[in-house]
Amino acid sequence: MDKLTVALLLSSKKILVLLRRFRTMKKSFFHFSNYVGNPNWLELGQEVEYTLSPNGNTSASGNCLPAENVRTLPKGSIPQPAILDGTHNGIVARPLRCINPDQQEYAGLIEVLDETKQSVLTQHEFGITSLVNKRDLLQKGDLVTFRIDEIGRAADINAVRQKKRATVDSIKGQFGFLNYEIEDGKKLFFHMSEVQGNAVALHPGDTVEFSVVTNQRNGKSSACNVLKINDRPDRLISRLKLNADDTVPRLIITRAPRGPQSKGFLPQARIARIPGILIE
Predict the structure, then answer these.
(1) Cα separation of 134 and 154, whole Å?
(2) What stretches in the chain show pLDDT beneath 70?
(3) Percent of the chain at pLDDT above 90?
(4) Do the domains 5-72 and 163-228 sit in the same CATH topology, yes or no?
(5) Homologous superfamily of 163-228
(6) Spatial contact of 150 and 82, defined as CB atoms under 8 Å apart
(7) Which of 4, 147, 160, 267 is the Cys-Cys partner for 143 at CB 3.0 to 4.6 Å?
(8) CB neighbour list of residue 178: distance below 8 Å, 6 or more residues apart
(9) Which of 167, 175, 176 shows the shortest CA–CA distance to 228?
(10) 201: Cβ–Cβ under 8 A, 6 or more apart, which residues?
């Protein structure tokens, strides 16, 4: 049995999966029928084990053998290089090939520039497993923070993107739409897996913070790292929760009370009154 990581989900119908280890450029693919388990749970960057099909045909490119008996492995099953201390700032000089299929290189590339932003100090390749968010579509020119492992590759990569705010327009199944227009007046969409925290608690009308990314494979823009913003202070929310008991009598306020004047409350306010009887 060999071990690789899931590098790319091919085809919108999720029929094929490409396996790849960027360090060795070794590739294999498999049909979902050769996966042991529920293929809907497959995620980018997952570690798997498999056997190569002895009589299988290669892919159209001629350098990709089919795999079978594919099983997922616990995280950490494949030894990874140790990550060194220190965080660095860089810029994506080359995305992953799954983001830009026109490029020849499989691995992405991050460059560290000098203070003038004119000279390249160091370069570091990265793969799917290098990303903190495996669904993040890092593109050329994106600013990132990252760490470096013992073989000089980038690790723990986080994108540094401009944050935007909008309200949720609607949610339909696994996709949501924001009141944020993009090309041709279309509303920006997001996948529910991009929602930070409890996605069930997100409803139309909620204010969210997000970043906009464009998929270079299909040219479509979407929202990522969607975070719900509380419009009410936490103290008020907790008080509302405490007063949400429908089994007790409720007091309805018909008008706001008058506050004290500069000389104190009016004399009429000091008159003894019978409870339940209003004095005009």
Answers:
(1) 14
(2) 1-27, 54-64, 216-217, 231-271, 273, 278-280
(3) 25
(4) yes
(5) Nucleic acid-binding proteins (2.40.50.140)
(6) yes
(7) 160
(8) 166, 167, 168, 169, 187, 188, 189, 190, 208, 210, 223
(9) 167
(10) 228
Q: What is the pTM of this model?
A: 0.60
CA distance 210 to 218: 21
The DSSP symbol for 264 reads B
Q: Are strands 175-181 and 187-191 parallel, antiparallel or unpaired?
A: antiparallel
Return the closest-CA partner of residue 110 out of 54, 159, 40, 173.
Answer: 159
Residue 22 has which token pair?
A: 């960027």
Tell me how far apart the terminal alpha carbons of the chain are, to the nearest angstrom.
Answer: 88
Domain 83-159, what architecture? Answer: Beta Barrel (2.40)
CB 226 within 8 A of CB 234: no
Question: In this structure, are residues 177 and 191 in contact, taking their beta carbons and an 8 Å threshold?
Answer: no
- To which residue do tokens 């000098």 refer? 114
Among residues 49, 191, 38, 212, the alpha carbon closest in space to that of 139 is found at 212
